[in-house]
Each structure stands twice: as structure tokens, then as C-alpha cells.
Design brief:
By secondary structure, the chain is α/β, with parallel strands linked by helices. The chain contains 5 helices and 12 strands. Bound molecules: cytidine-5'-triphosphate (CTP) and calcium ion. The site of cytidine-5'-triphosphate has 14 residues, from helix 3 and strand 9.
């Protein structure tokens, strides 16, 4: 029997993890996006791979090196991430949606640079992007154990619990991004992991340490559910 060392305990477990922002083009030179750095998702991918898992990382545009042993697919827009995520999800045991997916995109992308014009106001017409994690959690065949993130500034746990239920997730990681040292672009984070019938708070620590705890907790909950 193999000892449960840090490097071998997740051998054979397949993860798909999304990370970073998405970028929604307005015209050939402009886009809508957000402040996600990708650091949390990359830390999760690094931790799972270091524990011996088979990891696919689907990343929006970020300035980060691919963690050792991780298979990476780069995408730009939410629609591209949606396609790549669903393709990978059906061959995964665990899906973690850590990406800050843009909720909306331009209804029409201009093919040439938009000109300023004489008006003092500009109205953008936006349409909703697909909800990637809800699509993964809603799969009827080959549905992976699905874990979301909820970045909130207020009523953090209550909004996160609502998302756990409405998106039919197995777990959700509630992230209070109003805290000065947590969340976007920080090297540290603090979260509460929630599931039906339980929760665990993980205090402010490095994203690397936090990622290791999260991967361990998620894998445990996954094996409890599937046995
Ligand atoms: N998510 C997704 N696809 C989207 C929007 C969000 O997969 N189009 C995922 C995120 O990756 C995250 C979870 O849904 O795992 C929650 O994201 P969040 O932005 O907090 O939730 P929304 O449902 O978009 O709600 P809102 O932004 O209004 O709070
Ligand atoms: Ca959102």
C-alpha cells in the first residue's frame, strides 16, 4: 500500500480549474474586464499537482507562470472559457471555478475602432455571458464534483450560500474582497468554504498555504460524496 505522502495522496484524481479574469472585446483596441490576477486559481492548480493530481488549468489573460506539472489552456473571453471548461469538465472528477468571469459582453463587437463622436455620453449595449459553473454543475452525464468561488463585499456568507443552492454546486468558497489583504491581486487570502450541512473558515494566510488546505478539504468532501 502506498503511504499517504503529500506528493502521492491525490494520484489519479482529475481536476479542472478555471482562473483569472475574462476579457470582453468592445472593438479591436478596447475591452471590459476586472481586477482578477489569477493568483488563487494558479495556487490551487499548483497545490493539486504537487499532491499528485492530474490538473487542467483554464486561464484568462494573466501574468503568471504555469505551475509545475499542470496542463494549461489559455482563453480570452467568457465564451471561450465556457467552451474550454465544458470540454475539460466531462473528463474531470473535480471542477473548481475560480475565474472571475465577466457577467456581460458587448452585444455587438465593433470591427473597427469606435470613434469618440460629439456626444458627452456613451451607452454600451451589453448581453449576459453564459454561467460556466452552473452549466458544469447542471451536466446530467459526466458531471464533476463542482466547487465555486463567491467574491463578495457584503453579506458574504449569505450571498455565497444562495449561489451554492442556485447554481447547484457541491461546495463554494466565500471570499470577502472588502478586506484589505484578501482577494484580488493579493498574495494572501482568507475564505470560508461552505457546503450543504457544513462550513469551515480558513484564516488569512498565503494563497499557497490556503490552496493546499482547500484542495485537501475539497478532495475529502469529494470522496465522502462518491463513496
Ligand atoms: N461564474 C461562472 N460564469 C459566469 C459568472 C460566474 O462560471 N458567467 C462562476 C465564478 O467562476 C464563480 C461563481 O460563478 O465560481 C460565482 O461568481 P460570482 O461572480 O460571485 O457570481 P455571479 O453568479 O456572477 O453573481 P454576481 O456577480 O451578481 O454576484
Ligand atoms: Ca459575477
Amino acid at each position: 500500500e502506498r503511504p499517504a505522502t503529500a506528493t502521492s495522496r491525490l494520484t489519479g484524481l482529475r481536476f479542472t480549474i478555471t482562473a483569472g479574469p475574462t476579457r470582453e472585446a468592445l472593438d479591436p483596441v478596447r475591452y471590459l474586464s476586472n481586477h482578477s490576477s489569477g493568483k488563487m486559481g494558479f495556487a490551487l492548480a499548483a497545490a493539486a499537482a504537487a499532491m499528485g493530481a492530474d490538473v487542467t488549468l483554464i486561464s484568462g489573460p494573466v501574468q503568471l507562470a504555469t505551475p509545475a506539472g499542470v496542463k494549461r489552456t489559455d482563453v480570452i473571453s467568457a465564451q471561450q472559457m465556457h467552451e474550454a471548461a465544458l470540454k475539460a469538465a466531462v473528463n474531470s472528477d473535480i471542477f473548481i471555478g475560480c475565474a472571475a468571469v465577466a457577467d456581460y459582453r458587448a452585444a455587438e463587437v465593433a470591427t473597427s475602432k469606435l470613434k469618440k463622436g460629439s456626444s458627452e455620453q456613451l451607452q454600451l449595449n451589453l448581453i449576459k455571458n453564459p454561467d460556466i459553473i452552473a452549466a458544469v454543475a447542471g451536466l446530467t452525464k459526466q458531471r464533476p464534483f463542482t466547487v465555486g468561488f463567491a467574491a463578495e463585499t457584503n453579506d458574504v456568507l449569505s450571498y455565497a450560500r444562495k449561489k451554492l443552492t442556485s447554481k447547484k454546486l457541491d461546495m463554494i468558497c466565500a471570499n470577502d474582497v472588502s478586506q484589505p489583504d484578501a482577494g484580488f491581486n493579493s498574495d494572501q487570502n482568507a475564505v470560508t468554504l461552505l457546503w450543504q450541512g457544513g462550513e469551515q473558515t480558513l484564516a488569512l494566510q498565503s494563497k499557497a498555504a490556503l490552496a493546499e488546505s482547500l484542495i485537501t478539504l475539497i478532495s475529502k468532501q469529494f470522496s465522502n460524496k462518491s463513496t
